[in-house]
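Please predict the structure of the following assembly.
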Amino acid sequence: MEANVYGLNAINAHNGWAISVVGVTIVFTGLVMLSMAIAQIHKLLDLWEHRNELSLFRKKEPVMTQPQVQLTPGQKESARQFKLLAETLNEHFSLPRLLSLARVSGIDHPHTTLAILLETNIIVDDTQGYHIWDISQFKTLVS
Amino acid sequence: MEHLFVDFFQNTGFYLCDYRNIVMILVGMTFIYLGIAKHYEPLLLVPIGFGMLMGNIPVFQGLGLGIYEDNSVLHYLYFGVTQGIYPPLIFLGIGAMTDFSTLLARPVLMLLGAAAQAGIFITFLGALALGFAPNEAASIGIIGGADGPTAIFLTAKLAPTLIGPIAVAAYSYMALVPVIQPPIMKLLTTRKERLIRMEEPREVSKREKMLFPIVAFLLCCFLAPAALPLLGMLCFGNLLKEAVVTERLAVAARNAIIDSVTILLGVTVGASTQGNVFLTSQSVGIFVLGALSFCVATACGLLFAKFMNLFLKSKINPLLGAAGVSAVPDSARVVQIVGQKEDPTNFLLMHAMAPNISGVIGSAVAAGVLWSFMS
């Protein structure tokens, strides 16, 4: 215990105000920083656990570009004839029925043409056992 | 033959006894009584109380019996106190037994632990004003941290001659938390405020709990490196607990190590309170300032909680501010008791543990800051 200096003089003499203010500030800053940091821990962990769902970390899958199908003029003509036949059927038609109509109508290479129409998605499976004619695809590739 | 009897008599405690030894023996017995009969911090008060009895048996100087004699057994055991070895080991155990979930669930409550540390610095100013040297004032101020090991650690570094009174004051006030805090809590809060219910905390993942000690250690020790011995051991102990794979070490830290060190610390601190060293006007000043420090720290926590409520959408019960002083877990228990007196269905204990634990971290950082300023 120092004998001579007391009260505010002692505080001033030992730089007490500055030590207290700086001390409180450091303690407060430290705990504020810590509370802010720990408030983010669960968010960061959550981010890490779901990293595969983030576009930033997701591996880019190669884009499967469908090669542009170029039909020959003969194939286009056969496709137009198939369309006329399909229009005589219901919207959802059976392939064997279309094929038999093509045979009866005397279209050249009906099996090959039908295969091309299926590969180019001009004729599309309706998943119910029947098929439908995709007008837009037809227009893109044939018209 | 008569000469031998006289010599023997002159070496007995009855002959060498001083009224100060008697006073301290009575204080020691009071500590033992409070610990055993009243259950006030028995794990601390009983060893300290018995240590007081040991330290105040008047002994013939030169026989190597007293704690302040270089070659005595007690002196060697006291080495762990004077060199600041025991407090970090106690922090290791505290870390290994503490669950930081509530703190992680609502980190904003950490600010209450920070606010309560203002009591340390206000008491530091008070001690300077009373004429204590800055290093002594810093050691007295840290009593407001309500953390015995931290108070002993800082005093061992800054003012070793004051370890006895400061340790006894710190542990006495920690034991008296249920008596000191409730009147201040009632004075500074309204009934409506005491009835506030806290939101259910979110669930905290194991990974979060494992990361916390590492983040807390790095952040706090980069900011205040002098807090390294205490915070390092606290966080290390907690990592041992949360890592699961080190459960064996965690069990040792929270049982065998902390228990052994508490016994050694308690007994030697108690034994250091020899009447002729302890009963001075300086000790009285330390006790008065210690009480003031405790009260101011409690008030700062409460008032800061009220201040936070001005900005928070989901209000917090301001009683939690009182748990910002460390005294784990006693001050959290007091919050629970005071809260339940107003509403028996309001459970605040779990929420109060957050500022309570942040108070431990805050007081360790404050000790580090004061140590770095004074050294």
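Helices of chain A lie at 7-13, 16-49, 73-87, 95-105, 110-119, 135-141. Chain A touches chain B through 35 residues (CB under 8 Å).
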